[in-house]
Design brief:
This protein is mainly α. Helix content is 39%, strand content 2%. It has a two-stranded antiparallel ribbon. The two termini are 26 Å apart.
Length: 257
């Protein structure tokens, strides 16, 4: 699936499926984007092509991505939310433009909070956006260090539920030979948009280190507890913040196309 969040869109891409050239590496080929499945880019390409044939130069790839993500959330049971449409795409596509723009699975939580804060998002808003991990998957390489030879005293990260760790170790045992191997972000209800992600964190079922950190840190744990016990509140806050994301760093005039 197309990753929705917690990645904050930089909207620098001239075209999300625009390939790298001999001269420079395109944004879609930046390391942070390599885990996105090729069919996700294909969906955008086909949608863009169809729209260009009907109304050329009107609908941007940024709007296509935002709308596709929203519709996917709704299809799998999540809340509908309004989007700020009509934004433009950037005029260039460079992999280096992603550096420091996105939270990464191995980052300390303080660094993740700083990235969101720099974009105008509070800690609570960050936790609400992280709930998007109730659907989708992550490749084993993003969390394998938590599973094998974690430390001198622990074979795997002790924050994992032991049975969960056992299953993940089995699933990812050959990930170095097959980099496409992956696990659902939400092991309990992977195909449903709900608040199970937060309940999982309380049970030691957080897949990424940044997931587990949300329950361990006093700055974020109260919001994890709140959303785990109140799905309606999670849906309301997620919808509100996703609308805020849709109007982040809008390009106007000759700064976009």
């Amino acid at each position: 699936m197309l990753s929705i969040l917690p990645s904050i869109p930089s909207h620098t891409t001239k075209f999300p499926t625009f390939p790298s050239s001999i001269v420079q590496k395109a944004e879609r080929d930046a390391d942070i984007n390599l885990s996105l499945p090729g069919d996700g880019f294909d969906v955008v390409t086909r949608a863009k092509t169809t729209l260009e044939l009907e109304c050329p130069g009107v609908v941007s790839c940024a709007d296509i991505l935002a709308t596709a993500a929203r519709d996917l959330v709704v299809i799998v049971g999540g809340p509908f939310y309004k989007l700020g449409l009509g934004r433009k795409d950037g005029l260039e596509s460079k992999a280096r433009n992603t550096e420091g723009q996105f939270p990464e699975p191995t980052m300390p939580l303080s660094k993740v909070i700083d990235i969101f804060k720099s974009k105008g998002f509070s800690v609570q808003e960050m936790v609400a956006l992280s709930g998007a991990h109730t659907i989708g998957f992550s490749h084993c390489k993003e969390f394998s260090y938590r599973l094998f030879n974690f430390s001198k005293n622990n074979e795997y990260d002790p924050k994992f539920n032991p049975e969960y760790a056992k299953g993940l170790r089995k699933l990812c045992e050959n990930y170095t030979k097959d980099p496409t191997m992956s696990a659902f972000n939400d092991v309990m209800t992977p195909g449903k948009f709900d608040n199970m992600y937060y309940k999982n964190l309380k049970r030691g079922l957080g897949l990424l280190a940044t997931d587990s950190a949300l329950f361990d840190d006093n700055r974020t744990r109260p919001f994890v507890d709140m959303y785990a016990s109140n799905e309606t509140k999670f849906f309301q806050d997620f919808a509100r913040v996703m609308h805020k994301v849709s109007i982040l760093q809008i390009k106007t005039g000759n700064k976009g196309e």
